[in-house]
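Notebook entry, structure prediction.
Reason for the run: the old model in the group folder had no record of what sequence produced it. Starting over properly, with the input documented here first.
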Amino acid sequence: MARMNPSQRARRMVGYLPPLLQSGGRIHRLFDAIAQELGVMEGGLTRLMRSRWYSLAKGFQADASLATKAGSELGRMGALFGLQPGPDEADAYFRRRLASLVELHRTGLGSAPALLRLVSLVYRAEQPPELSWDGDTAVGRFIVPEPPDATGVPGRRSITVELHDNPSTPAMARFQRIPADQRLLTLNQGLDPAFPEVTLTAPADADIRVPILHHHDSGLDVLFLGSVPRGKTLTLRHQRVPLIDGNPAPEPVLLAHPARFDDNPQPLRFDTDAARFSVFDRDQGLPELAPGENHWSHGTLSKQDLENYLPSGRNPELEEDRLKALELALEPRQSPPIDIQFRWTEVTPATFSLRIPVDYIPPQAASLPDLVRELTSALNYGRASGVRARIEFMLTMPREVFEVSESPANVALSTRYAEPSGVNDSPISDTLTSFGPAIDFEEQLPEPEDRLSWSGYFDTTRFNTSRFDK
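New structure, fully documented this time:
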């Protein structure tokens, strides 16, 4: 229905009167005054309704001051939801940001799509972002504006961010000048077990001869059948070659349990010849680091202890290493204090991480720390209570395509680096020729015309005794 002006409204009200009263002059003046007042009230109600609707509220200029933006109708409406216009932010994008936030409140803030949408709002990206899953990682892609180039044409760029639940966190426990047989404590605060990387550093005045590392919780022993020279560092990695100062060591690493057993119902002593180990692995393995507390101790093996672990003739494939280790071992044993370091990776509980490209900072953010603060505030706004959010940096490399084509006298190599937009900006190709004279042989045999065929049937006897009847 079209809006009426005061004159139209006055004539309509007069038209509702009986014909006898419509000709009175004072009646017309009365209804003119009422129509004027109703027009003023209608205008005030219209302004009130416009100021309470985000798409009709009075906005602001992009270059206006923050105080002017916050005092506008649109700015005051955003303040109801904790939103403040940013520097150089136009009112058109602020309206979209306000509508997106209200929609997220309706659908929920703690999900991966909602968190990625909050992140895209910080980047002032086009809404909504494209969401995909790479395993347990939520990947968000959106388009952000870039400053105009030399010709004045504004640019556009694709940004990829990743949201990962329960990320992996490096952990470390370090001990210095620890004497032998002293119990050490490591704490795995992750959700899953982990295999640690252990480094043992010999003191400057003594070698570590045939070191042994004991995991008290599992009862497993780790034996290195070699020597760590003074001042050098032995690195033990699960099912990988040991290193001494970064160089591979030829000596093996054994994983054994000191409890032995045999077929007799009575348990046998550790040094009984007829007994054998309940665990004896030669795959360079290490004990598993269970969630919670783990206790360790270190030392060295004497000749007698080494004989108990490796009796003569019991392990022919280790006989050469056993003899070399016996020459290194001392009787009685000597275990100098050493430096020990444990490294492992924990699966962090009640935590999610946001990975952002480090090579892009939106124009409204003064620096990378400012962007991190804005993203942290957005994640804390949307995360569930008790869940921690952290931000990690990543550098997306262009995809490389390498192709090789070969013919009798030619080899062609081509490499393409595809940008995230799919544009190939730097193709590289090379062709290798001049291989000298080449001879190409091609032989064709005629298809045989005579075919061997006959008919018959198998009888009903067993398969291995049946015969073919012509």
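Summary: Residues 25-51 form the longest helix (27 residues).
The old model has been moved to the deprecated folder.
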